[in-house]
Amino acid sequence: MGIGGNLLGYHVLDPVAAVVVGLMVARMGWKFGWDALNDLMDRAADAETVAAIRQTMLETPGVQGVHDLRTRKMGDQVLVDVHLEIDANLTVAEGHAIAAEAHRRTMARHNVLSVMTHADPVYVAAETRRR
């Protein structure tokens, strides 16, 4: 528009077009700079990603609850720390197997670099376990 307007005698369109292009370049520079700065700082993953990770862990057989789920972005991947609520009447090996399965599922389904799990015992009433 600026070149065409200038050729048709509208000399003011050339600097106007230059200002518009300059603003577009400045906006993109700000956006890229802001994203790069955020990637350098520790920040949590977005709420949608956290909810999806929580759901994956809750769907793991043997996981009765999830709390203290924390995430940190590292580049385009996520680091996860989580406490899994597991039946206290299970053996250590069984609890570990459940935590390992939650870890495996999370790594397979999400863009996650690392999952640190902590098993918290949950006491389930005997009549609830028999169902």
Question: Helices and strands: which structural class?
Answer: alpha+beta
Rg for CA atoms = 26 Å
Q: What summary fits the major beta sheet? A: 3 strands, mixed
Global mean pLDDT: 88
Distance between the termini: 74 Å
Note the total helix count: 5
Specify the CATH homologous superfamily of the largest domain: Cation efflux protein, cytoplasmic domain
- Poorly predicted sequence stretches spanning 5 or more consecutive residues: none
Give the number of DSSP strands. 3
Order of strands, widest sheet: 1-2-3
Going by CATH, the architecture of the largest domain would be 2-Layer Sandwich
Number of domains: 2
Fold and architecture overview:
- With 131 residues, the protein is an alpha+beta fold.
- The protein has two domains: 2-40; 47-130, Alpha-Beta Plaits (2-Layer Sandwich), CATH 3.30.70.
- The chain contains five helices and three strands, in the order H-H-H-E-E-H-E-H.
- A three-stranded mixed β-sheet has the order 1-2-3, with helices on one face.
- The radius of gyration is 26 Å and the shape is rod-shaped.
- The relative contact order is 0.13.
- The mean pLDDT is 88.
Sum up the structure in keywords.
single chain; 131 residues; Alpha-Beta Plaits; three-stranded mixed sheet
